[in-house]
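Please study the protein below:
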Amino acid sequence: MKKHILLLWLICFSTIAFAQTELRNLTVENASNPIGIGVKTPRFSWQLVSNKRNVKQTAYEIQVKEGNNTVWSTGKVASEASIFNKYAGSPLVSNAKYIWQVRVWDNQGTSSKWATASFGTALLNSNEWKATWIGSGLKSDTVNGIVPMFRKSFLTNKKIASAKVYVTSRGLYEVQINGKRMGDSYLSPGWTSYDKHLQYQTYDVSNMLLEGKNAIGVLLGSGWYRTRLGWENRQNIYGKETGLLFQMVIKYTDGTSEMVVSDTSWKASNSHIISSEIYNGEVQDARLEQKNYSVANFDDSKWNNVVSKDFPTNYITAAINEPIRKHENLKPIAVLTSPKGETILDFGQNLAGWVKVSVQGKAGDIIKLSHVEMLDKKGTPYFENLRSAKAQATYILSGNGIETFEPHFTTFGFRYLKVEGITGKINPDNFTAIALYSDIKKTGSFETSNAYINKLQSNIQWSQRGNFLDVPTDCPQRDERLGWTGDAEVFSRTASFNFNVDQFFAKWLIDVAADQKENGAVPFVIPNALKGSFFDMPVGAAGWSDASIIIPYNMYVSFGDKEIVERQYPSMKAYLGYVQSTAKNDLWNTGFQFADWLSYRVDDSKGMIGMKSAITDNYLVAQCFYAYNTQIMIKAATLLGKTDEVQEYQALLERIKKAFQTEYMTASGKLISETQTAYILALQFDMLPENLRAQAVDRLVKNIESYEYHLTTGFLGTPFLNPVLTRFGRNDVAYKLLLQDTYPSWLYPIKAHGATTIWERWDSMKPDGTFQDPSMTSFNHYAYGAVGDWMYRTIAGIDTKEAEGAGYKNIVIKPEIGGNLTYAKGSLETNYGVVTSSWKIENNKFILDVEVPVNTNATIEFPTNKIETVKENKAVLNAKSKTVGSGKYHFEMEL
C-alpha cells in the first residue's frame, strides 16, 4: 500500500513539475553569457517553455548581482515582455562579472523557478584604455611585405583569480599566450569603417596564464585595413601602418589587480609569413618560422623594439557582433586531372574559407594551392572570373617531417583546388576545406517534396555562409568581396530566417551611418572601400543606398529589435532627405542608378532565342523605391511615436505615387516599360490606383507567359516577383516560375550545372557550358536567393505581423499549396522559441501540424474552401482560420 501511495505521489509531483513553465536561452544583448559587453544599459531576453497550451507570461522579475551586491532588482513587473528588457539598475562598472537571474509568472497560475546566467562588461569608457598603440617599426612591414610578430614577457607572482584581454588592431591580429592560441575567432577585429568605427574583442584568458613567467605573442596582418580593396588596385585605403592595441587586466585572489598593456617595452620581428593579402592569398616559408615565440623562455634578444603610434582610441567600441569562426570541414569528393595534366581536388561544395593541408617534403619545396569555383566543360580550372585575384596559398617546406599549413589572414571562395608541388600520388585525406563565416546562429530550416527546391534552399544558405564574413559581401572569390548595399538589402529578410543576423546587421549598420555623406547619400559599398574612386559619388542609388532604411526595419520585423530602428533613425531620415532634395516635384528622375541590375538581356545566352531584352526604365525603378523608402519611414516614425513625421511622410507618399502615375503610366494603367520588373514594383508598392491593379496583374502574367514562364528580372525585381503574384491570386504562376528549370530560372543552375550556391547572373554558365563575361561572373552571390523569403512565408507559410507583433510575437501561419508539392516543412527559432509549420497532402486531404512558442499567438489560415471539413484533431472547426496560443496543433481538411 505504501508503495502505491509513493508511486502516486511521484506521478503527481512529476506532472506538476513538468507542467511548470521553464526558462531557457537567457541572453544579454543577443548573446549567451557574454564576457565583454560595452553597453551601459544592456537588454535581457529569455524564452519560456511549457507543455501546456495558451501559455503567456504575465509578469517577470530580474535580479542582477556583482558578487554579493545586488545592483538591480525589478521586483515583480506585470508584463508580457520577454525580449529586450533594458537594464535600469545601478551604473555598471568596467571589467566586471555580473550574475543575473529571472523568473516569470504565467496566465496558468504558475511561476517558474529562477533561471540564472551571467554577463561581463568590457571597457565602458574610452578613457579606460591604458594601452598604447604600437607598430613593429620594421622596414619590411608594408602592405605587401612580411607579417610582423610582436612579443611581451611578464611575471605574475600571485595566485590568479581571473584575467581578461581587450584587444584590437589596425589590420588583423592573432594572439598566442604561453604557446597557445587565444580564442577561436579568425580575421579579428573584423572589417569596419576603420577611420570612424573600430571594434575590440574581449577574451577570458584566466586559464592561459601561469603563476610566474608568462609571454604574449601576436601576429599582425594587413587584412582589409591596408591591402588592396576593389578592382582598381587601390591599397592603404585606411592607412599605411598597422597597429596593435592590447590590454590585459589580471585580478588576483588577494583582491589586487594589474595590467599588461601594449607599450614600447614590447618587441617585434619578422614572421615566416612572407606576404598576406585578401585577394592574392598568403605565402608562408616554414624555414623562417620562429617556433615557440610566445613562450616565456624564448630568446628575443635579436628582436627590435616596437614603436608607439598616435592612433586614436576615442571611437573604439566593444564588439557587438559575432566573430568569424571555423565551421564545416569538407574532404575532397574526387581527385581530378585536367586536360593540361593539372591535379584538381573537388570538395563538392562552393564555400568561403581555406584549405588545411598536411604534407611532407624537402626543405625549400614549394606547395602551391590555387582556389577556383568552376571547371570549364573540358575540366580545366576556370580562373578568369577571379579577375586580378590570385587566390593562392603558397607554402615553402622546412623539411622537418609532416608539416601542416593553413592561412592566417586571408580567405578564398572555391569548390576546386589546383595542387602544385607535391610529387607522387595525392592523398585527399591530407586536405580539408574549412568554411569560415561569422558565427551567426542557424535558425531556419525548410524542405519540401521537391528535391530541386531543397537544393535551392541549400544553395541559398551556403551563399549566405560564404558572404556573411563580418560584412555582407557580394562575393567571396574575386578582386571585390565588398559590402554592396544592394545585395544586402534585397537578401536581408531571407537572411534573417536562415540565421540570427540581428547583431550582424546591427554592427554593419553602424558603418552605414558612419560612412554616410554629409548630404545624406549612402555609398554603394559599406564599409566604403571605394572612397576616392568613381563609385564614391555623393549620390544614392535606388535599391542600394536604400539599405540604410530597409534593413533596419527588416531587423525590427524579424527580431522585434526596436533599438536598431531607434539608433539608425537619424541615418534613415537623412537618406530619405537626400532623395527628397534630389527629386524634382517629387519625381526621382536624375542621377546615377543601377536600376534592375543584371536583368535578362537577349545576348546574355543562347537559351532564349528570339525573346526581347527586359530593360526597365531606371527612373521608374527609382520612383518605386522612393515610395518603398517612404512607406518604411511612415512605419518607423509610427513605431517611434513621431506623429508629426508620420503625417509628413504620408503626404509625401501620396505625392510620390501621383508623380509616378503622371510620368510612367498611361490612363489605362499601361507602364512605359513593359517588363516584369516594372509591373512587379508598381504592384508591390501600390503605385497604381486600386482600380487599375487587376489589369496590371494581367499584363504581368501575359509578360511571363510570353517568356514561356521564365523570369526576366534583375536584382531589384526578383525579390518581389513571386510575392506579388501570390498577393494578387496568381500563386499558380509563382509556382511555375519557381519550378522552371531552364534558363533563366532559379533551378537552371542546379539542374543544368549542379550549382551548390546562388550565382550572380542567371547564366553565369550558359546552357552550352561556356561562361558569361568573366569580368562579372560570380558563382557565389546570394542576391537572387532572395526568393527564399517567399518560400518560407508562402510555401511553409511562416510569417509575422509587423505593427502589432513584430519578431513573431504575433505569428501568421498561412501555407499556400501548389507546384504539385506533396509536403513542405519549415521551422524557425525566433526570440520566443521555435515556430514550425509542417504540411502534407494525402488522398486529397491536407494535413497541417503547427507549433507555436510560449508567450506568442498565431493566426492559422487554412488553404481550403471546404471549411466545413476543417478539423483540429477530431473537432470540427468549420472556419477558414483560427487564432491559437502556444502549443502543438494538428489539423486536417479536404482540398
User: Anything to note?
Assistant: Confidence is low (pLDDT under 50) at residues 5-18. The longest strand covers residues 343-360. The CA atoms of residues 66 and 98 lie 5 Å apart. The first helix runs from residue 2 to 19.
